[in-house]
Amino acid sequence: MADSRPVVVVGASMGGLRVTEALRKSGYAGPITVIGDESHLPYNRPPLSKDVLSTVVSHEAVAFPQRAATANVDWMLGSPVSSVDVAAHTLATADGSTREWRALVVATGLRPRRLALPPLAGRHTLRTLDDAMALRDELVPGARVVVNGSGFIGSEVAATARKLGCEVTVVSSNTLPMERALGPVLGAEVQARHEAHGVEFLPGRSVVALLGESRVEGVVLDDGRELAADVVVEAIGADCNDEWLAASGLDLIDGVLVDPAMRAIGLDGTVHSDIYVVGDIARFPNTMFDSVPRRVEHWNIPTDTGRRAGAVLGAYLADDGSLEDVAAQSFTPMPSFWSNQFDLSIQAFGMPGLADPDGVRLLEGEISGDSITGYYRSGRLVGVVGFGMKAALMPYRAQIAAG
Known about the structure:
- By secondary structure, this protein is of the alpha/beta class.
- It contains ten helices and 27 strands.
- It has a six-stranded mixed β-sheet with strand order 3-2-1-7-20-19, covered by helices on one side. Strands 9-16-10-11-12 form a five-stranded parallel β-sheet. The chain has a five-stranded antiparallel β-sheet with strand order 23-24-27-26-25, with helices on both faces.
């Protein structure tokens, strides 16, 4: 008798959507259920801190088109999953119901890390569409905005808020914006371009308290200074949404450990061919660089890992002897990201963070203008970052892939 239990994808995100598309492409025609804690069908997150935040924020503006192949997928939205029983092939949702699964896909991603401070109106994070809608309403001309954090989200929100006419101060424990991703030279250039547009930076500082009774009126820094603020945006990193997997026996040391086929690995080393992990919660080895499993939070990873997991899971469900051949195929996705801040367009390929301390070199152009910077480890190019010059980046992308 055919197994009538569905494939259940937990996480109605881009990764969740891509894995369902890949499953259908593999030939699997059985039931698929996607369970998401948000009330929206899958949408594109990166524009939320960029163009969309500066214009009209709506689901229509960022939604992914639904393809005919996934028209019969069962979407359970606004329904967080609370736990899973791997042995019984069941999971529980927050409303107390239990659902069976034939195979499970973990696509629950990340959530913003928060300051351990009392809740007040005017505090914001930026991860979801609802976050963006709430923040956009408060980014009005003249608003005093304190951005806590100077990574991707913090830098992009600072630029967008300033373009909307806000007075923006960036408070960060780091020395320079985006320094971990770009290094100190390009980080300093990012800061200079922000300052040219009127953004103020307070490096090496952190927010330790908020001022105001029911709504934010200011922040207190760790050196005792007080800053007036109408809006505080917390952009201090993210944590994995893996609490519902606590009793699963899977390796959750940093996200969920998987093999190159995106199959989950247990603490005892067991490879689970019926459990897959996609997106920025997956910790996987990429032999383009080395054999060290890492989580990668760049925009292309949900798509690449979703397609990979869907293909392997499709072979598992087909039960036609193809699983091991499909799983053994090479999987070396090229990490990439982009960012737009004022008139600065940043695009990157590879893993710049893997470069040796003295392995950062200007390859083309001028740092103060358009440029291409290379990142080397033991003499090998492992990352490249362009300020503008998008077309000229492509040969370096190929060079990274070639090893």
